[in-house]
Amino acid sequence: MRTVTCAAPVNIAVIKYWGKRDERLILPVNDSISFTLSLDEMYSKTTVSISPTFTEDKFWLNGKEESLENPRIQNCLKEIRRRASKRKLEGSDEDVLNWHVHICSANNFPTAAGLASSAAGYACLVYALGQVYGVEGDLSSIARQGSGSACRSVHGGLVRWYKGEMEDGTDSFARPIAPANHFPNLRVIICVANDGRKKTGSTEGMRRTVQTSRLMQYRIRESVGLRIDSMMQAIKEKNWSAFCDLTIADSNEMHAVCQDSFPPCIYMSDTSHAVASLVHQYNEIQISKGNLNNKVCYTFDAGPNACLFVPGAVANEMLSLLLRTFPPSSPPNADNFIRGMKPQTLS
Ligand code: PMV
């Protein structure tokens, strides 16, 4: 029997992946850039065991047995076994490929609530499978086939997912572009406005946007590529102010194309907009004082929860501002739950 347990943190996109050009292989319409958070707070933990005594493959998610028929898990499993069998042909491993697998996975934060649970989950699953079957090399393109954004959680720090040009997806993978401390002493605050499952999953939301939104065509052809270039430049120059402006602009564009789809996909709530407007007010004060390095930025995934990137120097101030503006009820619940954390290097 072989058993491996590992943990993978969530990643938060600052230039969003939104829209697929190939749904089966999960190939995106644009490059994206993200920050992988630390393992201190929001992470997935997965244990993978293989044994000659297991009689079937089995899967548990958050303590509940689930079907392994899920095509995305199957894609990851198939690809790992395919790569492992290649190694075996090279004569490097014992015969484990016919053993059944048991997978036990759990998130320590709400699943499918627009908090990047699938990114952490699939990155963790693929990494654990890779370890158990002795598969080496790039795992990001396998994690991508579980959930697109998962390919970025395989690496730590700032990560870019290259959309690639090939039809078979072999050049669609993630690579680290800068370490987690690139912007020193950075803090991340996650404001959970609602931790329920989202109404429109990202797969359906992306499909609808690509099929019906004209604004999405503008994003693909004219906007997001230039923003990727500007973000790479901002990162290279450590230009925090530009990083903030680009992050905010890309989140707003993603939610604009969602709203422009038919019927519209609405992910942000009144609370989300109130958090965004608080950040803009705060930034105006910092700009008027000439403190561009104290700017804060927000980004929203396919849900109402805000992710704020906050310089350490103003993190306490921002946190108390948030707590005063959105006072926690007593006892704290998911509607007022704010988590602070910092990005970390993983790989
Ligand atoms: O990987 P998915 O299918 O969960 O899509 C995630 C999409 C966003 O989180 C909204 C954006 C991103 O780049 O992570």
From TrEMBL:
Pathways per UniProt: Steroid biosynthesis; cholesterol biosynthesis
Domain Mvd1 C-terminal: residue ranges: 188-347
GO biological process, one term: cholesterol biosynthetic process
Keyword terms, alphabetized: ATP-binding, Cholesterol biosynthesis, Cholesterol metabolism, Lipid biosynthesis, Lipid metabolism, Lyase, Nucleotide-binding, Steroid biosynthesis, Steroid metabolism, Sterol biosynthesis, Sterol metabolism
GO cellular component terms listed in the entry, alphabetical order: cytosol
InterPro entries named among the record's database cross-references: GHMP_kinase_C_sf, Mev_decarb, Mev_diP_decarb, MVD-like_N, Mvd1_C, Ribosomal_Su5_D2-typ_SF, Ribsml_uS5_D2-typ_fold_subgr
Catalytic activity of the protein: (R)-5-diphosphomevalonate + ATP = isopentenyl diphosphate + ADP + phosphate + CO2
Domain annotation Diphosphomevalonate decarboxylase-like N-terminal: ranges: 8-174
EC number: 4.1.1.33
GO molecular function: ATP binding; diphosphomevalonate decarboxylase activity
Function of the protein: Catalyzes the ATP dependent decarboxylation of (R)-5-diphosphomevalonate to form isopentenyl diphosphate (IPP). Functions in the mevalonate (MVA) pathway leading to isopentenyl diphosphate (IPP), a key precursor for the biosynthesis of isoprenoids and sterol synthesis.
Entry similarity comment: Belongs to the diphosphomevalonate decarboxylase family.
Protein known as: Diphosphomevalonate decarboxylase
Species, as recorded: Penaeus vannamei (Whiteleg shrimp)
